[in-house]
Specification:
The protein is of the alpha+beta class. It is 25% helix and 24% strand. It has 14 helices and 24 strands.
Length: 672
């Protein structure tokens, strides 16, 4: 990987022959686990300015209509998290000369508070090409990481590392984006609220679109017309919040479904049905298909999907579960799909065979899809690549939990272009969540779970036991799935927290966690939920058989301790009576603690008697832990899901929240 320094530049064609589609990752880590930033992209014309506000892509305008830019959102990494952006450089309009990649922080925070601030670039096969680490970012609230620019028909990249003390607004204004006055935005709320449209109404108007090809070749990009006032996003269709009353005579009547699941009997039937259902919806719903394939190096173009494909392979032809093809400007991008359902594991020899076939035929990727969640440094299958072959084949993995998450985000929170597409996604989501589909995500803690739990009970589990590492990996997969599920339900970013002090080597970190599991019998994790005042901590104590969910909230900067205590008790009026409240004070000495039931009549009981300075409060709930390794009623996975859901809905949502971002931009970025 080419290491860059501030101000240096390099031609992309000198790094790879496959840079038509590129993945840019902006990353950072934080000692506290809470530091974060948001990426933004600006397309600049010859004058160094955006052609219109629509050329500014950020959290409220994440996708270019022509697919040339797509903000994929955050993904957990070994050292923290990364914000990922895909660029289809072949689709960038010809009058765009530069592409600026930046990020900004909220609430007066500066990039100097973060560690390992960096940008990296990978080609369409996923191979890392370059990396630039930003040194001494300082207290700036916005940072220009780098830019792509055209030279003699080629794309080059320049490392910049320039900070903006005026934050995102100052950066955007410098490049010609029109920033709305905040007061004006507040005085005209009707201009900044998306209007949800009932799926039932919209489907009637657009039902014919279901049988049409829904992913046509994008038209040639036309520079957006200047608008004297910033435009809001196009009206998009989401699921209605309240379902209409059913016309059924009784509860025994079942709604007719496009993708029925009850008749499935064998694993092969489940794999075949799940593959066909998913690929057909990907081809018919452009937003969904593009969202799933953009991170795999696919261009923005016309997508077609296939099943029951036979490919020659000597004397024994191979039959992958599916094929995805995307065409743009006469060029094809092809991926073979290998699917597993119902907890079945991917087979190394099968995946290796598909990688070899893809290399021989000039295909770009192999995509595996299963209930398992892939971890950094611990691939689900190991494959060998022939370095003598010119064509590089990328191996990517999707979990069914990720597919479900993306469908939820589109139809419940972000919206899609028309009612027929929303209905198709709703039917897909219903199928994936059906108990008989086999597409339920990670649902088994593995064969090491029971012996490790017994070894902890009888104190025979020793440090260095590989079974403890297996349990730690299963725990990490479960936590990532909890983040996907909760994020899809809330419509907010939910990520596992990785504190910088734990190191960035995933294998060494898991080995250390396994040693701790052997010593004290505990599995720990932390989740950062966008908009909440702290990090949600989760601890599974295998010795006591209890799960603890907790959150630490900082003490207010102003006011009196008694006022803080009374306000906290009022906020928790609907929280469970067995909620534990602990006062955090300076030093290692713990503060007063008690249940909410005891504190409601006497909030002052939570205040320290010695006058110690209060730094915050810790709220905790405890419940019994399931012991079975699966997802049954008595299973450990079910108990973790229930604990997180209960704590979030009954405790976290009642706390003072950080001001959430509006769904519509105050920056005038038109989506349509």
């Amino acid at each position: 990987m080419h290491e860059m320094t501030k101000g240096s530049n390099i031609s992309l064609s000198s790094l790879s022959t496959d840079v038509g589609s590129a993945m840019v990752s902006l990353g950072w880590s934080s000692p506290t686990g809470e530091g974060d930033a948001d990426v933004s992209v600006l397309l600049l014309a010859s004058g160094g300015k955006v052609r219109s506000d629509a050329d500014f892509y950020f959290y409220n305008n994440p996708v270019a209509p022509d697919g040339s830019v797509q903000l994929l959102g955050k993904a957990p990494t070994a050292g923290g998290s990364e914000d990922r952006i895909t660029f289809d450089l072949t689709a960038i309009p010809s009058d765009v000369e530069r592409i600026v990649v930046a990020a900004s922080r909220d609430e007066g925070a500066g990039f100097g508070e973060l560690d390992d601030v960096r940008i990296s670039l990978a080609d369409a096969s996923g191979e890392g090409l370059l990396r630039y680490s930003v040194e001494d970012a300082g207290p700036v609230g916005a940072l220009l990481f780098g830019e792509f620019y055209r030279r003699s028909g080629d794309w080059k990249f320049r490392a910049i590392g320039q900070g903006y003390g005026t934050g995102l607004a100052g950066l955007a204004t410098d490049f010609g984006v029109d920033i709305d006055d905040a007061a004006e935005a507040e005085s005209e709320p009707e201009a900044s609220v998306e209007t949800p449209v009932s799926v039932e109404t919209a489907v009637v108007e657009a039902a014919a679109a279901v049988v049409e090809r829904a992913a046509p070749e994008p038209a040639a990009a036309v520079p957006p017309q200047a608008d004297p006032r910033p435009r809001t996003a196009k009206k998009k269709i989401t699921l209605p919040k309240v379902a209409k009353k059913s016309l059924a005579e009784n509860d025994a009547w079942r709604t007719a479904r496009l993708f029925p699941a009850p008749a499935l009997k064998s694993d092969r039937e489940r794999e075949t049905r799940a593959t066909s259902v998913l690929l057909s919806v990907m081809a018919q719903v452009p937003e969904f298909g593009r969202r799933l394939t953009a991170g795999f190096g696919a261009p923005a173009g016309r997508m077609e999907t296939f099943t029951e494909v036979t490919l020659p392979n000597g004397d024994s032809p191979r039959r992958p579960d599916g094929v995805i093809r995307v065409e743009r400007a006469g060029k094809l991008w092809t991926a073979l799909v290998e699917t597993k359902t119902n907890g079945n594991a991917l087979k190394q020899d099968q995946v290796q065979a598909y990688v070899d076939i893809a290399a021989r035929r000039g295909y770009e990727a192999v995509i595996t899809l299963s209930n398992d969640v892939e971890l950094d440094g611990s691939p689900l299958v190991e494959v060998k690549t022939d370095g003598r072959r010119k064509n590089k084949v990328a191996l990517w993995h999707l979990s069914w939990a990720e597919v479900t998450h993306q469908a939820q985000m589109l139809i419940r929170h972000e919206g899609v272009a028309n009612g027929a597409h929303a209905w198709l996604l709703q039917e897909l989501l219903h199928y994936l969540q059906h108990e008989n589909s086999g597409c339920h995500g990670f649902q088994n803690m593995g064969p090491a779970w029971v012996p490790v739990r017994k070894g902890i009970d009888d104190e025979t589990l020793c440090q260095g036991d590989e079974r403890a590492v297996d349990v730690v990996e299963s725990w990490e997969r479960l936590v990532r799935q909890v983040c996907l599920r909760l994020g899809g339900e809330l419509g907010q970013k939910v990520l596992p927290v990785q504190r910088a002090r734990r190191g960035t080597d995933p294998q060494a970190r898991r080995a250390a966690l396994a040693d701790r599991l052997c010593l004290d019998g505990k599995l720990d994790a932390e989740l950062r939920i966008e908009g909440t005042p702290g990090v949600l901590a989760l601890c599974a104590d295998l010795r006591t058989g209890k799960l603890r969910t907790s959150i630490e909230i900082p003490a207010p900067e102003q006011g009196y301790p008694l006022t803080w205590a009374k306000r906290l008790v009022r906020q928790l009026d609907e929280a469970p009576a067995d909620l534990h409240v602990e006062t955090l004070v300076d030093g290692d000495v713990g503060g007063p603690r008690g249940t909410l039931e005891r504190l409601r009549p006497e909030p002052a009981d939570i205040l320290p008697r010695n006058g110690a300075q209060i730094t915050g409060f810790r709220l905790s709930l405890f419940r019994g832990m399931g012991h079975a390794r699966g997802n049954a009623e008595s299973g450990f996975i079910r108990s973790v899901d229930d604990s997180v859901d209960r704590f979030h809905t009954q405790v976290v949502v009642n706390l003072d929240r950080r001001a959430p971002r509006p769904r519509q931009p105050v920056v005038g970025a038109a989506v349509g």
